[in-house]
Every structure is written in C-alpha cells, then in structure tokens.
Amino acid sequence: MRGIGLFWSFTFLFLVLSLSCINGEDPYRFYTWNVTYGDIWPLGVKQQGILINGQFPGPQIESVTNENLIINVFNSLDEPFLISWNGIQQRRNSWQDGVYGTNCPIPPGRNFTYVLQVKDQIGSYFYFPSLAFHKAAGAFGGFKIQSRSIIPVPFATPAGEFTVLAGDWYSKNHTDLRAILDGGSDLPFPDGLLINGRGLNGNTFTVEQGKTYRFRISNVGLTTAINFRIQGHKMLLVEVEGTHTLQNTYESLDIHLGQSYSVLVTADQPPQDYYIVVSTRFTSQILTTTSTLHYSNAAASVSGPPPGGPTIQTDWSLEQARSLRRNLTANGPRPNPQGSYHYGLINVTHTIRLQSTAPIINGKQRYAVNSASFIPADTPLKLADYYKISGVFSLGSIPDYPTGSGAYLQTSVIAADFRGYAEVVFENPEDTEQSWHVDGHNFFVVGMDGGEWTPASRLTYNLRDTISRCTVQVYPKSWTAVYMPLDNVGMWNIRSENWVRQYLGQQLYLRVYSPVNSWRDEYPIPSNALKCGRAVGL
After folding, report:
1. Last-in-domain residue among 120, 146, 172
2. Partner residues linked to 106 by β-bridges
3. 34 is in which domain, residue-wise?
4. Can you tell me whether residue 316 is helix, strand or coil?
5. What is stated as this protein's family in its record (predicted)?
C-alpha cells in the first residue's frame, strides 16, 4: 500500500513540476509527512502523542505569498485522520480545507496529498488535526507566510524569528478524553500549559543584546484563553492573522483560543535571562508556565517569581481588543495599502446572528448554535453538494438567528450567495468566554460589547480601521459583530475554537454558492479526492 502511494505521489509531483515550468506559475514547496503515535512527556507524565515525522509539535511550514504547497500526508495511525489549516483561506478551493465537512478522512495506512496555494495572504497561522479529538494529542504546528520581496513591510527586518505555540493541555490520552465526551460529560480543568510542546521552563529563546526579534504566537490550546508576556520587555504588535496593525506597545497580550499574533521584541535590557510567561485567562484556577528569554551574553540566570498578569478581568481584555487597529497605509499581501478597502461603506446583504448555548440532549452534555447541535453526516457535505446526493444535508437546517426553541441534533448548513456581504453577530449569553473561527474567510471585527446585541448596537461599530482576522473572541454575556465579504465559493466550517464545544456540536457550515460553473469562481474536484460514505464509487 505504501509503495503504491509513493508511486502516485512521485507521479503527481512530476506532473506538477512539469506544468509549473511550462506555465510559469508561482513557486512550489514540497512536504512529506508521516503521522504516527509516539510517547511524549509534556507535563512529566508519559502519554500517547500524535507525531509528524517524529516531532511534537509538528514541522513548521515556511512559505511566501502565492506559493503552492504540496503536502503529502501518510496516516500511520490506527484510525482515520485529517489535517486542517487554521487561517489559510484556500481561495476557490475548499476541497483542501481538511475538515470532515469538505474532506473524507485519510484511512489508516493510506496517504493524501494536499495541494494548497497561499493566495494573497501573509501572516502567522497554524495547522492542526481536525478529527476525533486528535488535537489533544498533538499533530499541530506553525504555518508562516512571508511577504514577497517586492512588497514593503512596515517594520525593519528582525534579527530572527521565533514561533510560539502555547495552550492548555491534558495528561490523559486523547482516547480517554474522547470517551469522557462521548459518555455525555464535560472535561475537567486542564492539567497544565505548554509552550512548544513542553511544560515549565522547557524552552529557551536565545537573543543578542540590542537586536529585535519577531515572535509569532498562537493559542493552540483546547479550552482556555491565555495571556502572554516577557519579563522586563515591551512587545510591539505588528500583525494579527495576516493584517498589519497599528504598532501599539503592550506589556502583555491576551490570546484567545485559535488566535495568532506577531510582536517585535527588542533585547534592550541588562544581559541576563528573563521569564517568558503564559497563564490562563477567565478561569477560577490560574495555570502558569514559563520559558526563558536568554541573552547570549547573559551575566545572570533568571531569578525571582515570574511577573504576574491579568486573571479574570474582562474589561481589561475588552479594552485591549478594541485597541487593535489596522495600519491603513501599510501594504498587505498586495502592493495596495490595506486602507484602500473601505469595508464600512459596503452594503450588508445578509445578517446572521449566532447564539451559543450548552443544552443537555438525550441526557448528554451538548453545545449548540441557534439551538442546533451539529452532528456529522455520513458523507462530507462538499462531496454531497458536488454530486447532488440528497438526504445528507439541507440548506436552512439552522436558522439565521436565535429562536429560543429547544435544542436538537442537526447537520447544520447556512446558505449564502457568492459576492454577498455578511454581518455576523456572535452572541454569548453564557458565563464562559467563547472564541469563533470561520474557514475560508477573513472578517472585519466591527464591534464587541457586553449585554445583548440589538440593531442599535450598530451605532457603535468601527467602520474605518478595525482589524481583519479569522478568529475572534466573545466575552461572557457579551456579543461580537463582524463584517465578512462572501468572496470565496465553497463549503466552509464556522466553529467554536473551544475544542470540547466544537466536538460536542458548537459548529456549522456556511455554503457560499455561485451558479456559474467556472474555474474563475471555484476549482474542480481534485483528481486525488478521497471518496467515502455515499460518494464511494462516484
């Protein structure tokens, strides 16, 4: 089986290289990954991890705007597996999104080759396993998209870059955690925090005095927001999920589930070691972990307690979130300034209000959106849509607004028209903080506040210089509103980034539809697409 997979992989790569030479396409990068189980001890307790090429976390993806990435993934686990790409927009190509609504899982002993293009994107992101609570075992890694050399960047080239993948972690195997959820219970509080796969004092980041470094920080955790800070050092925010920001200075940053930030840090302090600190936010028990910022000419090691940070203060975090602004004069992935897109002047064609709830259904804990708790169909929704397989999903199976009706199980899909412009309001009546992600799109975070959203809330929207991103927080008993161009045809996952809530139903799909059957709007089904469910044999 492996030999056949390799033969077809090399044949595919030969064809890709031949076509790229003939057509003068954007450059290609090639990755071959083997996904296996392996023993890991991130919190000092042996557990079963999921490794990529023997690594935990997995290998970093390096890319430049518009490059094509060929990622051949071999599944050497004993269960189906998929990888998704948090923040990578898959322009016209939801076939490569790597979630069950778009892709059949890679069976054990088989491989699948993802063909991605990081079209018109820059920034800091990550990839992760999207099925079966595998994210609690690893198989995540950093994903970096650099600007093209011809595009100016609004800061000097740093002396170096560091990727920081931080988040909460459980010492139990993912199979044990999954069994708890399948049994109808919620998970206990996490056992600790990790930075790049290691626990307390597990990493050292070495810098030279007087030089400036870029830290790309992502919250890859399962259930909690985090706060990130570096003892004695200021952080200059320069990029949020592909948007160059106004360069405000922060002593610490709240990074909510699924979010990514880039900051510049200058090693301008006396030469010694300093704490890098990550702690949980909005939790009754505060978890903390540390790494070390090491000056290469350090005269002393780190000493004393790590610097404290915010804990449960929501207002502090809300004000920080409102301080994030788009740099209107800076270039994005293209040479035109980011401010040339006047998002606040476009007429809204579709308002969607999504309210989270935590119902008990059939005696088990579930999570829902507008009363619908998502259940996967027997066939990926994208395949069912393409082959016109009836009975897999129904458009409008979830309302566009909360109805207050009793919770129910549903394969939830909202219909939307290509080139529309949506206002999406995430409403959180619960006491816990939420975090939401939309695949295939970036959106403009126009407003957030406490209490209930009403049409009058639009009077508070920032229609000039808010940031554009793909993952946004919603504070307890609060709302967050975004404007989203529906500019990417496909079947796109909208999900909670709290992985317990996502697994137990707090997600849905957005079908962005174009009646024109054209490559201009959407790429055709890949020739190597896996078939499963009712699509087998088609």
Report:
1. 146
2. 81
3. 28-146
4. helix
5. Belongs to the multicopper oxidase family.
